[in-house]
Design goal:
By secondary structure, the protein is mainly alpha-helical. Helix content is 44%, strand content 3%.
Length: 350
């Protein structure tokens, strides 16, 4: 993408800011289905470290989703998750970003890692903020940050941060992820929430591999940002103290057993199977459960923060359903079925 072209339109009104923060929710959510597919395709007994890495990133993307919702609620917006635009057909481009980044549902492996590295790619130090058509997620959030600052200077913080504070999520219990949910009520807390999202994805100050947290599974070491966690899996080696983005990882070896990965069919679709087939019934059941998760998240983010706890049981249900699908032969003699992540309208849910 040519970043020397005319700059993207500025975020110059509260309404435009709300629109972009809804885009942030859609962007953070777009990472969850592919990360889930990669995670659930891994045999945790044969690929414990890879499962820990992907699981930790997934948990932190859920955290980012909550942070984006807090930001949108803080400026008087209405987070939407239970909507068809959250689940477009696969493959599809990363929302509002570089159209060359096509999101596919694939099992863990080289293709999945390349996609994840493209999604989490750090921005260069001289990359301009971009409010739409961004090349990296960092550029998008830099545009949101700039818009927030300018609007607060122009209108005053009280006008910008007009949302109901009771809608703020104060905590999420993520056993496999780092970071924390930051309630947003003014410019300082909004900038802190944005920094949490970007640093976990790209690394602190765009020049370090570390994200500022401690590793959940290895408390003796600092945690690396998402991009560099995927680099560790690609290179088969951990980052060690003193390593930099330029040096690459030089630490302890990470073993990945590709024979311990379920061969899920690429971009599964319920339309590939007859309506009365066991696979299609299982896929429809999964889609109903996933849409229930979106409904519960939207409910939690729009006035019922205490309802977030109900999502934990649904996530366990999704895991069992996805893993069962990934053990069902697809019929081509090579692959297994998999979850489809297709939107089910509320009136059609079972």
């Amino acid at each position: 993408m040519d970043t020397s072209a005319a700059p993207a339109p500025a975020i110059d009104s509260v309404e435009e800011l709300r629109r972009h923060l809804q885009w942030a929710i859609e962007l953070e959510h777009a990472t969850i289905p592919p990360y889930l597919c990669a995670l659930y395709s891994l045999d945790p007994g044969r690929n414990a470290e890879a499962a820990q890495v992907v699981g930790s990133v997934l948990a932190e993307e859920m955290l980012h989703l909550a942070l984006a919702a807090n930001l949108l609620n803080a400026v008087g917006g209405e987070p939407k998750l239970d909507a068809p635009e959250l689940l477009p057909a696969y493959p599809h481009p990363l929302p509002h970003g570089d159209a060359s980044v096509q999101v596919n549902l694939v099992p863990f492996g080289a293709e999945a890692l390349e996609l994840f590295l493209r999604i989490e790619q750090p921005e260069s130090a001289d990359a301009p903020p971009q409010a739409d058509g961004y090349r990296t997620i960092g550029q998008f959030y830099a545009a949101v940050q700039a818009g927030l600052k300018e609007l607060c200077e122009e209108l005053g913080e009280e006008t910008v941060f007009s949302g109901d504070p009771r809608r703020q999520i104060g905590e999420m219990h993520l056993r496999s992820g780092g970071g924390s949910v930051i309630p947003v009520h003014d410019l300082d807390s909004a900038l802190a929430a944005l920094a949490e999202i970007v640093e976990q994805g790209e690394g602190a100050a765009r020049t370090e591999v570390w994200d500022g947290d401690r590793d959940v599974f290895h408390p003796e070491r600092d945690e690396v940002a998402h991009f560099y966690r995927f680099q560790e899996l690609k290179n088969g080696r951990r980052y060690a103290e003193g390593d930099t983005p330029r040096s690459g990882p030089t630490g302890k070896e990470i073993k990945v057993d590709l024979d311990g990965v379920l061969p899920m069919r690429r971009n599964p679709s319920a339309a590939d199977y007859p309506e009365d087939s066991p696979i299609r019934r299982a896929q429809v059941e999964f889609d109903n459960t996933y849409c229930l998760l979106l409904y519960l998240l939207e409910d939690a983010f729009t006035g019922n923060p205490g309802g977030l706890g109900a999502t934990v049981g649904v996530m366990f249900q999704l895991k069992a359903q996805a893993q069962a699908l990934m053990k069902m032969p697809s019929g081509d003699g090579k692959t297994t079925a998999g979850p489809t992540f297709e939107y089910v309208p509320p009136e059609q849910r079972s």
